[in-house]
Amino acid sequence: MRSAPRRGWRRGITQGAAAALLLAVLAPVLWLVQMSFRPHGAALGADPVFVPTMANYRALAAGGFPASFANSLLASTGSTLLSLLFGVPAAYAMARHRFRARGRIAMWVLVTRMAPPVAFTIPFFLVFSDIGLIDTIPGLIIVYMTFNLALVIWTMRGFFAAVPTALEEAAWIDGAGVWSTFLRVTLPLAAPGVAATGILCFIMSWNDFFFALILTRTHAMTAPVAIVNFMQYAGWEWGKIAAAGVLVLLPVLVFTFFVRSYLVSGALAGGVKE
């Protein structure tokens, strides 16, 4: 009879701790959202009672921020799709096929993520200057894809290795080819990994500031760089900064919302274990 109250207390403590942790995580975001609706000159005010205004968002819409936002969306989406397009088959080949240079290739792929980004800045800048990719969306896509490929290959390699080979062998016995088996059997089972990897690639590209600052000027300026323009010597426009920050959060939240089912699904449940 005493175990039930104890379980109730433990459940209450657990739920209270989870609620406190959630509040701690969401507090900065909620503060940013409420600051974006404060009037100009009162963005940093601590008064909980104020008249919400859309002036900061209207100011962003009237300026050049929508173009920078679109540039970030195009560069991040394009680099993510291309990284998955080339990286997923490469990861499958490295996970399934054994060849002599597989270990060395995997190590060289990893090396591209170990070096700091500043080490590649001057080579990218010089090459892009010669071929006319400075201040262009394709230039940003190439840069982001270069670094995201290593992430895709190494992450998806582990997901493909976890897929039982017996399922692929069964498909081969039924007459399916290598590509047909990959597209119809292996890839659907690794869908949660593709979704998680795509989210990581998109976030890394979306949050990039360094390469966008060096390799763009005006036409391909991204949202993180545009936000810095609101920080001036005369004063920081906190209302616009907060509104821009809220807008920058939205694509990641929307993208995660649409692929949430893949992230939590047990796609390999019931698979054949080797």
Biggest sheet features: 2 strands, antiparallel
Count of β-strands: 2
Question: How many angstroms separate the termini?
Answer: 45 Å
For the biggest β-sheet, the strand order reads: 1-2
Number of helices: 13
Please state the overall shape, judged from the principal axes of the Cα atoms.
flat
Count of spatially separate domains = 1
Low-confidence stretches are: 266-274
Q: On the 0-100 scale, what is the average pLDDT?
A: 82
- Looking at the overall shape, the CATH architecture is Orthogonal Bundle
Description:
The chain is flat and about 70 Å long. Helix 6 (about 135-160) packs antiparallel against helix 9 (about 190-205). It has one domain: MetI-like fold. It starts with a helix and ends in a 10-residue tail after the last helix. About 75% of the residues lie in helices and about 0% in strands. With about 270 residues, it is an all-alpha fold. A hairpin with a 2-residue loop joins strand 1 (about 230) and strand 2 (about 235). The chain has a two-stranded antiparallel ribbon.
Give the arrangement of secondary structure elements.
Layout: H1 3-36, H2 55-62, H3 65-96, H4 102-114, H5 118-131, H6 137-162, H7 165-173, H8 178-189, H9 191-206, H10 210-215, H11 223-228, E1 231-232, E2 235-236, H12 238-258, H13 260-264
Antiparallel strand pairs: 1-2
Helix pairs in contact: 1-12, 2-12, 3-6, 3-9, 4-6, 6-9, 7-8, 9-12
Provide a quick synopsis of the model:
The chain is an all-alpha fold. Helix content is 74%, strand content 1%.
